Amino acid sequence: MVAPLSGELKQFVAEHVVDRHNTNSVKWDLLQDKYGDANLLAMWVADMEFKAPQAVQDALVARAQAGTFGYSFTPQSYYDAFINWQKRRHEVTLQQDWIRFDTGVVNSLYRVVNWLTEPNEKVAVLQPVYYPFTEAIEHQGRKVVSVDLLNGDQGWQIDFANLEKTFQHEDIKLLLFCSPHNPVGRIWSEAELEAVLKLCHTYGVQLVSDEIHQDFEIGKQRFTSVLKVADGAYADQVIVLNAASKTFNLAALLNSHVIIPNEKLRQSYDAFAEGQHIVEGSLLGQVATEAAYNEGEAWFDKLLAVIRYNYQYLKDTLAENVPEITVSDLQGTYLSYVDLAPIIQPEETEKFIQETCGLAVDYGAWFSPKDQTYIRLNLATSPENVQTATDRLVTQLKQKRNR
Ligand SMILES: Cc1ncc(COP(=O)(O)O)c(C=O)c1O
To answer: What residues pair up with 363 in beta bridges, in sequence order?
Structure first.
């Protein structure tokens, strides 16, 4: 049994969790379109039911009340807030002139593929991986080469032997790397990151690290940015994408970062960006992000505690009732990757989840063709939703097992 939520966290949940129905929410208002059933409990899409910190709401209201929304630029105070956050939370020292803006990390994934590769060239990913990684490659006529993660007694691991073999034998231009890794929830250790960076260096593969989930440290493992590995020794060879949007629930405000320490690469990116006429960030996105980084830390630490609680509930309840089901060790992100294989057949996963359990999840099949029995559950929601989803899973899995 999981202990009840503390009074402080209960209050945080009561003050921040909202019903998002009828707010044009993809997660809640498009259930009918996506799954054919508007009444499912939405545990998909990586955003949250938590209202952003009060300081973010206040900053947006104040900016809205200024009443003008003409062309704008990024103020110095924004850079200071972002650089300070990276230093404070992650011990990453950013230089201001490394930073470029975009309107979302997925947009940037598409752009880096377009910028750094030619049609038909090969881009590596480590599947299972957040599906826009492969879409960014395939939609632009490039070729996906997956060096699949290994999943054994040690949990999800990078297959270094296969990565090296692939770099050796396939002409890989680019590695799209997810850190922390969605959907398996790994925070890569510094040693793992250094091993990847060494291979990229040896074989001339450009590494792009999507670090959008960097702030979600769920267990003991601390997040290390590729910018910080070996005291920054590899910073010059990497490109990092991140944003405040996962951390503070700001995805629709369309503001993200592209960080390029190497001057030549940056010049090349700037020339590419000019050719594409890339819009630099969004005014309201930057107002919200600056307020969040400056004044949202206490809010975020409480949110993290609620997510840890939700994960513990899911993990312990499944372990107690259906111990044959494996829940991937959630180190980073707020997305739990669960394998139903011992009880559910690959071809019945969707029917079981939607029709029997009444849940909307991200299916493992979206992340890798091999993961047909996996589901990804979003834990950045109320403990009540997590408990309902977990309890439905437990009841139905037990019934199915005993049939
Ligand atoms: C790894 C990863 N990258 C990018 C995104 C989306 O980023 P954005 O909304 O900035 O496009 C997500 C959202 O789930 C994600 O998990």
So the answer is: 375
